[in-house]
C-alpha cells in the first residue's frame, strides 16, 4: 500500500515536488500539504486535489514528512512539530545548509532523517536531487526517498559532508545558466538582433550543448575544441572570456555559495 507523504511548507520547491509526484502517478489521496497562509492552502487544494492540513496533523497522519521551508524557518517549524512526530516517521529535509543533526537534536531519539538538495528543474522532471542519510536513516529510508524524488528527475547519494558543495553546484546551479543566458541575450542585442530571436538562439544553443554533454560521453574540452576552428570566430570569444577571468569568477562564485550553505547550518542565520 502506498504510504502517506506530507509536504510541509509547500512553496516553490514543495510544490514542484508535489506536482511531480502527482504526474508520476502518486495518488492525491496519499498526499498531504501544509502552508502558512490559508489562501496558499486553498490554492494547493484546488490545483492538485490534495488535502491541506496543519503541521501537527500532517505529523500525526503521514508516514513521511518532507520539510521544504526556508532554512531560517526550520527551527520554528520543528518546535511546532516535535511533540507530534512519532520516532518511526521518516523526516526528509529539503533545506539548504541545515544538517541532519539539527533535526535529530530536536526530534524524538532515533527518528530517521534524510537530507535532500534538489533543484527547480523538478518542475519539468529534470531535477537532480542529492541525498544523504542522517545517523538513524536505513537503506530502506534512502530507497523510499529516491522513489519520491525520482518522480522529478535524477537522484544521487553523497556523504553528508559533500552536501554544501552539492548545493553550490546543483541546488543553485540552474541560476548560473539563467544568468549566462540573460548576459548572452544582451550580447545579441548589442550585435543588432531582436531580443526574442537572440533569446531563442541562445536557449537552443544551451539545450543542444546540454544534450551533447549528457549523451555524447565526450569531455567538455573535446566538445569545445570541435567548435573552435583555427583562426575562426570562437577562439576570439574564448580569449575574451579568459582575459576577463570568467573561469576564476565561476570557481569563486561556487565557493561563495558553498560557504553560504555552511553558514545556514544553524538554521537561523
Ligand atoms: N528555490 C530553489 O531553487 C531551491 C530551494 N531549496 C530549499 O527549499 C526550501 C524552500 O525554498 P523555496 O521553495 O524556494 O521557498 P518558498 O518560500 O517558496 O517556500 C517555503 C514555504 O514554506 C512556507 N512556510 C514557512 N514556514 C511555515 C510553517 N511554519 N508552516 C507551514 N508553511 C511554512 C512559506 O510560507 P509563505 O508563503 O507564507 O512564506 C513558503 O510557502 C529552502 O529550504 C531552500 O533552501 C532547495 C533547492 C533549490
Ligand atoms: O538560494 C538558495 O538558498 C536555494 C538553495 C539552493 C537553491 N536555492
From TrEMBL:
Ligase in keyword set: no
Gene3D superfamilies reported in the protein's UniProt record: NAD(P)-binding Rossmann-like Domain, ProC C-terminal domain-like
Compartment(s) where it occurs, according to its Swiss-Prot or TrEMBL record: Cytoplasm
All residue ranges annotated as the Pyrroline-5-carboxylate reductase catalytic N-terminal domain in the record: 4-97
Pathway: Amino-acid biosynthesis; L-proline biosynthesis; L-proline from L-glutamate 5-semialdehyde: step 1/1
Main localisation: cytoplasm
Tagged with keyword Glycoprotein: no
Reactions the enzyme catalyzes: L-proline + NADP(+) = (S)-1-pyrroline-5-carboxylate + NADPH + 2 H(+); L-proline + NAD(+) = (S)-1-pyrroline-5-carboxylate + NADH + 2 H(+)
Keywords: Amino-acid biosynthesis, Cytoplasm, NADP, Oxidoreductase, Proline biosynthesis
EC numbers, comma separated: 1.5.1.2
Protein family per UniProt: Belongs to the pyrroline-5-carboxylate reductase family.
Function statement: Catalyzes the reduction of 1-pyrroline-5-carboxylate (PCA) to L-proline.
Protein name (record): Pyrroline-5-carboxylate reductase
Amino acid at each position: 500500500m502506498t504510504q502517506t507523504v506530507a509536504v510541509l511548507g509547500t512553496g516553490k520547491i514543495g510544490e514542484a515536488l508535489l506536482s511531480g509526484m502527482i504526474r508520476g502517478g502518486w495518488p492525491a489521496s496519499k498526499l498531504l500539504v501544509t502552508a502558512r497562509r490559508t489562501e496558499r492552502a486553498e490554492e494547493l487544494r484546488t490545483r492538485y486535489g490534495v488535502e491541506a492540513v496543519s503541521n501537527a496533523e500532517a505529523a500525526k497522519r503521514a508516514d513521511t514528512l518532507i520539510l521544504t521551508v526556508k532554512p531560517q524557518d526550520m527551527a520554528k517549524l520543528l518546535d511546532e512539530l516535535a511533540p507530534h512526530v512519532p520516532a518511526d516517521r521518516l523526516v526528509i529535509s529539503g533545506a539548504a545548509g541545515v544538517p541532519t543533526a539539527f533535526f535529530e537534536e530536536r526530534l524524538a531519539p532515533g527518528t530517521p532523517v534524510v537530507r535532500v538538495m534538489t533543484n527547480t528543474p523538478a518542475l519539468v522532471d529534470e531535477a537532480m536531487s542529492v541525498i544523504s542519510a542522517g545517523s538513524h536513516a536505513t537503506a530502506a529510508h534512502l530507497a523510499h526517498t529516491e522513489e519520491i524524488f525520482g518522480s522529478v528527475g535524477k537522484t544521487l547519494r553523497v556523504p553528508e559532508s559533500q552536501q554544501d558543495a552539492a548545493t553550490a553546484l546543483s541546488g543553485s546551479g540552474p541560476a548560473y545558466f539563467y544568468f549566462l543566458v540573460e548576459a548572452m541575450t544582451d550580447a545579441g542585442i548589442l550585435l543588432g538582433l531582436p531580443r526574442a530571436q537572440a533569446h531563442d538562439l541562445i536557449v537552443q544553443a544551451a539545450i543542444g550543448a546540454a544534450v551533447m554533454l549528457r549523451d555524447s560521453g565526450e569531455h567538455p574540452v573535446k566538445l569545445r575544441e570541435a567548435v573552435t576552428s583555427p583562426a575562426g570566430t570562437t577562439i576570439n570569444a574564448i580569449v575574451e572570456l579568459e582575459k576577463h577571468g570568467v573561469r576564476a569568477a565561476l570557481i569563486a562564485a561556487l565557493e561563495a555559495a558553498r560557504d553560504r550553505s555552511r553558514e545556514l547550518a544553524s538554521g537561523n542565520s
